[in-house]
Amino acid sequence: MGWMAWSSVTAIFFLGIAAILICMTIWEIKSPTVERKGFLPIIATTRGDRVFIGLLGSAYIHLAFLAVSEQSVWIAFGISIVWFVSVIRWG
To answer: N or C, which end of the chain has less CB nearby within 10 Å?
Structure first.
């Protein structure tokens, strides 16, 4: 993979996404999802929908944080974790 400019942070990021997908697949096999209505303004969502919305929202949180702040990106990471867990649990 010498043709790609992978850093260790980039590799960890994509390994984390792969781990989430693997865990979600195992969870879906063990316990099939049931659509439910949460705080998201959508009719009903599955676990996969909520994971996607949580990841997308986390990306926007990071981009917005980088646009308006000079603080450490770890603050955005903490906010993103709270967002992601909230969407998965109550979304």
So the answer is: N
Structural domain containing residue 60? 33-91
> Are 53 and 81 part of one and the same domain?
yes
3-state secondary structure of 39: coil
pLDDT tens, residue by residue, 18-39: 998 899 899 989 988 888 888 8
Q: What is the pLDDT of residue 1?
A: 55
Contacts with 42 (C-beta within 8 Å, 6 or more apart), sequence order: 49
The answer on 86 and 44 residing in a single domain is yes
The alpha carbon torsion through 23, 26, 28, 29 (nearest 10 deg) reads 180
40 has pLDDT over 70: yes
